[in-house]
Amino acid sequence: MAKVRLLVGTHKGAFVLTSDERRRDWKVDGPHFAGWDVYHVKGSPADPNRLYAAQSRGWFGQVVQRSDDGGATWEPVGNEFRYEGATNTHKWYDNTDHPYEFLRAWHLEPSLTDPDTVYAGVEDAALFRTTDAGKSWEELPGLRTHPTASTWAPGAGGLCLHTIILDKDNPDRIVTAISSAGAFRSDDAGKTWRTITKGLHSNYIPDPDAEVGHCVHHIAMHPSRPNVLYMQKHWDVMRSDDSGDSWHEVSGNLPTDFGFVIDVHAHEPETIYVVPIKSDSDHFVPDGKLRVYRSRTGGNEWEALTKGLPQKDCYVNLLRDAMTVDSLDSCGVYFGTTAGQVYGSADAGDSWQPIVQNLPAVLSVEVQTLS
Amino acid sequence: MIRVELPANLRTLAGLGREVELKVDGPITQRSVLDALEAAYPMLRGTIRDHVTRRRRPMLRFFACEEDLSDQPLDAPLPEEVATGREPYLVIGAIAGG
User: Is A180 within 8 Å of A282 (Cβ atoms)?
Assistant: First the structure.
């Protein structure tokens, strides 16, 4: 029987949740790294027992942990993220120049083929890579030294590189997103980068159609359709059919198109999920109702999924890495909230159940489907 | 032996109890003690002193013999009580809360 393993990063540690393929009864293991912020935990597609966790705290900086046994035990590995070459600057909140400084790792993206290779998206925005299972990290400096990088400015969450998408059919292609610089693509394995922001329109920046400055919250891709990208921008849900060369809005009938998470059904590349958040002022779900919205048409036409989710007095938020899908025949969808709940659906979103309800604020949720 | 006390989060990270004993060669200074600590417990590298600047992380303080040594020269000799193991060298996380 297949198993499902959820990897949950929270403000006070990491948790590993496991279930069989029915996904009704869950075992909760943790907290690992208690008291630390765990921004992200993710497993290697090439070796499901190999997990990586990004652990940090304002007092003590960054730690990276590796597990070789599916999260039962962990080992601290290399935590030195040193920018390559001379330090350049980005814009600070007051528009002065500010040197790039490493603060923390937001996202770890293991290679699709090599368990020892992992990409790390960090704040201040840069892309790093390990090829020795986390012992050492080297920057791929082409992104941080992009001609526009001196104009990037942090959003409220910092100048963080939070999205890394790899393409199984094209190892040279990497898509990244940075708040609040925008989206970028490399077609040469990370050596050089181009902005992929044509069609994004953001009224909150001086030039709404600028090449950079768009606050991209998350991007999702279905592995069978690598040219189709879905984006939850600060405001607006967007779609690209040409690997990001151009975008068009697919917010359609959503009650609000502000939000953080976006993900794609494991077997239906045109079925996507978002969770609308009321606004950038309020940062909680609208009308006190926790509703996942699903589109089966690749956007524009959305239906609210509410069965099993609180529909009154609910004022939680979902952060950008806090939704994921498994690859069982009946696709499972999972998300975590800032109030510490993790919800799961074993039927592609038609109905939901709380898996665990009182964790620390959830920062990220990833899933592994284990045979 | 030099005695060092660490904040709880770093004890957990390094798998240590409240206090660790270190053999330190040469002059007993803050730098030599921290170097010996990081050599013995590599997972602590970067968590007390920044990897790049090698400076104390801003929300940590160093104490010994009821004196705040945080801003003292790293190569100055530590008090005799620390050098002889009668008193510990303390790495303390700044209190934050309210």
Answer: no
Contact B57 A60 (CB under 8 A): yes
pLDDT tens digit sequence for A78-111: 999 999 998 899 999 999 999 999 999 999 999 9
Write down the ipTM of this complex.
0.93
| pLDDT 10s digits, A30-72 | 999 999 999 999 999 999 999 999 999 999 999 999 999 999 9
Give pTM, 2 decimals.
0.96
User: Which candidate from A36, A59, A80 shows the least CB-CB separation from B46?
Assistant: A80
Delineate the domains of chain A, giving CATH numbers in brackets: 38-336 (2.130.10.10)
In this structure, chain B runs to a length of 98
Residue A262 is given by DSSP the state E
Task: Look up the CATH number of domain B2-93.
Answer: 3.10.20.30
Interface with chain A: mutation pick from B12, B43, B56, highest number of A CBs within 10 Å: B43
A63 to A72, A122, A288, A311, A352: CA distances (angstroms): 18, 12, 37, 39, 34
Residues A59, B60: C-beta atoms closer than 8 Å: yes
